[in-house]
Amino acid sequence: MRMILPALAVLLPLASAAQTDDATLLRCAAMTDAAPRLACYDALGQQARSRAASAATEQQRRTADFGLPPKPDPNELQAVQTNLPGPFHGWSAKQRFTLANGQVWEISDDSSAFGRGNDVKVTVRRGSLGSFFIDFEGVTRSPRVKRVE
């Protein structure tokens, strides 16, 4: 069974290449001169080998990355800046905040802190392994949060 799977990874692209190159195969077969006909068949073989090698390389890459954390998408937003409308007095565990942009975030760790302000600027930023943190202007601690709405 272990030998069959790698063979299939190589043969499947060849099968699809064969289906897509039927017209070229018929063109090669219709050639009457031996040298151009052989060159035509050689070109088909090279295309099939190239496709198979490309598929095998992609399979090796996916196998090598298996089990690792996903790589960050460079186009993915890393932080959102907005403000917290109204008075701010700090936070405690499980407290929810509705931000000016309409998002609702909940403190997901067991931290608490005091703070004071009105219409405080906040930044919600990505952490590692899918976590998020919220930074309140004027407060040095950043609790872990999760978005609930």
Note the topology:
Elements: H1 4-20, H2 22-30, H3 34-65, E1 79-91, E2 96-98, E3 104-107, E4 113-126, E5 132-136, E6 144-147
Antiparallel strand pairs: 1-4, 2-3, 3-6, 4-5, 5-6
Helix pairs in contact: 1-3, 2-3
Protein architecture, described:
This protein is an alpha+beta fold and 149 residues long. It folds into 2 domains: 4-65; 79-147, no CATH class. Helices cover 39% and strands 29% of the residues. Strands 1-4-5-6-3-2 form a 6-stranded antiparallel beta sheet, with no helix packed on it. A hairpin with a 5-residue loop joins strand 2 and strand 3. Helix 2 runs antiparallel to helix 3 (34-65). The longest helix has 32 residues, at 34-65. It is rod-shaped. It starts with a helix and ends with a strand. The mean pLDDT is 85.
Instruction: Give the radius of gyration.
Output: 29 Å
Give a short account of the largest sheet. 6 strands, antiparallel
Instruction: Give the DSSP E fraction (strand runs of 2 or more residues).
Output: 25-35%
Shape: rod-shaped
Q: N-to-C SSE series?
A: HHHEEEEEE
Task: Describe the structure concisely for a colleague.
The protein has helices at 4-20, 22-30, 34-65, and strands at residues 79-91, 96-98, 104-107, 113-126, 132-136, 144-147. With 149 residues, it is of the alpha+beta class. The longest helix is centred in the N-terminal third of the chain and has 32 residues, at 34-65.
Essential attributes:
149 residues; alpha+beta; 3 helices; 29% strand; rod-shaped
